[in-house]
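Exercise 7b. Backbone tokens:
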């Protein structure tokens, strides 16, 4: 493709840090660079503990274990999300309760959460779509009244906020992604934020294959052993070194994305006025992180035609999630077409345009011009 959908920006310090990590001769993880990433995240988000992981998927799996999920439990989440949001809890025997999304932000409809609660509900999993905050006041109010845990899937939301507070810090646990398509990247990677101090020690154990190895390295025990369930959720020092350089440049990376986002948003205002498209929306009290720019077309056929038109011009634009409740796994849980009408409608009409910090104005103008050409 002449203009790709995504291209990660290298900030300039990644190779220096990787070289330094190799010189430390400790590449297996939880070394100097891992600790620097954890500390930086803790300062950024003012949280009891931050731990980088091998992926956001694994951060969510850790969250599921920390919430004590067991067979027969239920959890509430939007259908319009990635499979990892559901798998993390289903792996431990829980059953998903999918709810519809709002037509404005495409986030889970907080007004539907209470009606989906049952005696088996243990967790609510808000997903901050496109880095726009879910209505967390309502989610937290419901969770407190019903004694539920809240796990934020903030995979797309690093650097974004809701009413002045960073996304990922509202729930008991928050999970970020550093996949190469995200705002801050390390190829594959993630992080878990732990607000509840009582979960900190167990989180370290789960992340270290169920052992108290972290306590051993701090000199708190004279040997380490197997004390709990867990898995290998610890990234290598090479990954941590790359990630540290990216985290240090997070504000710069997000500024670059905002510039691209703003040019799109201004250019497509006229198409929205004419009724050709719907542009992204965010409430005034939400600061998004310009994670993506999408257009919602008037029909699925128009969306697919525009995607094909852009592809024929060397521009890669993509649709997003197939709703989970319409997937084979969703059908296994008893869901079928028609049950979540807003999700089904909007997901079939949404198209994501190329957006990355180094998308230059010339290439972006080509994308914009080709969209306008499509509409004549």
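Sequence design result:
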């Amino acid at each position: 493709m002449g203009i790709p959908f995504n291209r990660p920006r290298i900030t300039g310090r990644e190779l220096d840090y990787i070289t330094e990590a190799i010189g430390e001769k400790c590449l297996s993880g939880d070394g100097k660079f891992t600790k620097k990433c954890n500390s930086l995240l803790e300062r950024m988000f003012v949280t009891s503990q931050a731990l980088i992981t091998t992926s956001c998927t694994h951060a969510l799996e850790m969250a599921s274990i920390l919430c004590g999920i067991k067979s027969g439990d239920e959890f509430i989440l939007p259908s319009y999300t990635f499979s990892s949001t559901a798998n993390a809890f289903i792996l431990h025997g829980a059953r998903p309760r999918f709810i519809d999304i709002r037509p404005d932000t495409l986030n889970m409809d907080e007004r539907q959460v209470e009606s989906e609660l049952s005696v088996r509900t243990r967790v609510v999993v808000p997903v901050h779509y496109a880095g726009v905050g879910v209505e967390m006041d309502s989610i937290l109010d419901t969770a407190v009244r019903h004694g539920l845990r809240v796990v934020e899937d903030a995979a797309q939301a690093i650097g974004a906020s809701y009413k002045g507070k960073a996304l990922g810090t509202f729930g008991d646990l928050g999970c970020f992604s550093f996949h190469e398509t995200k705002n801050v990247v390390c190829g594959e990677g993630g992080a878990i934020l732990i607000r509840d101090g009582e979960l900190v020690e167990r989180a370290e154990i789960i992340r270290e294959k169920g052992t108290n190895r972290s306590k051993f390295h701090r000199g708190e025990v004279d040997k380490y052993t197997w004390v709990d369930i867990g898995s290998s959720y610890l990234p290598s020092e090479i990954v941590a070194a790359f990630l540290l350089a990216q985290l240090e440049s997070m504000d710069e990376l997000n500024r670059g994305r905002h510039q691209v986002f703003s040019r799109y948003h201004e250019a497509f205002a006229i198409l929205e006025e004419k009724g050709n498209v719907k542009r992204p929306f965010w409430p005034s009290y939400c600061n998004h992180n310009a994670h993506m720019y999408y257009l919602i077309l008037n029909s699925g056929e128009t969306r697919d035609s525009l995607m094909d038109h852009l592809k024929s011009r060397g521009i890669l634009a993509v649709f997003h999630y197939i709703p989970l409740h319409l997937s084979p796994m969703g059908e296994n849980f008893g869901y079928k077409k028609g049950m979540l009408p807003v999700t089904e409608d909007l997901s079939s009409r949404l198209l994501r345009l190329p957006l990355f910090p180094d998308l230059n104005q010339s290439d972006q103008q080509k994308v914009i011009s080709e969209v306008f050409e499509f509409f004549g």
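Instructor comment: The mean pLDDT is 97. The first strand starts at residue 49 and ends at 53.
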